[in-house]
Amino acid sequence: MFVIAVGLIGVMSWKVKSSVLGATTNSEVISLTTDPNPLQPGQATFIINVRGADGKPVDNATVSFDLNMTTMNMGTQRATATSQGKGRYIVTGNLSMQGPWRVRITASMPEGSTKNKDFVVNVP
Ligand SMILES: [Cu+2]
Q: Residue 43 belongs to what domain range?
């Protein structure tokens, strides 16, 4: 429970900073941070953390994302994230203009399930 509480606080504080909206759809946890943060137009690194229902990092998931604006079709960017260990995956994308972008994360978990989570990040 301690780990889960810390995770929620982290997500909430980051949400305030970056105007990110995300909905948890299951007990597993997919969380997202960006570099830079706050974002700016151009290349960005998306840092995805994947944990199982037990709160432990999941390293051998297959994590992919697709990226597009919420307000217009800019062409969907798709890529597979690279595992860095400790449940951390990174992938880059091009936020080519200011405004709201939808980041859809798909994680194929080692036990066979697939988890999806959408985030909206704002490029100010
Ligand atoms: Cu646009």
A: 2-123
Query: What DSSP state is assigned to residue 76?
Result: -
Between the CA of 89 and the centroid of ligand 1 the distance, in Å, is 26
Q: How far is the CA of 12 from the centre of ligand 1 (A)?
A: 26
Residue 38: which CATH number? 2.60.40.1930
Q: What's the gap in Å between 67 CA and the centre of ligand 1?
A: 11
Per-residue pLDDT band at 16 (split at 50, 70, 90): very low
pLDDT of residue 58: 96
* pTM (predicted TM-score): 0.78
The 3-state DSSP class for residue 9 equals helix
Please count the structural domains in the chain: 1
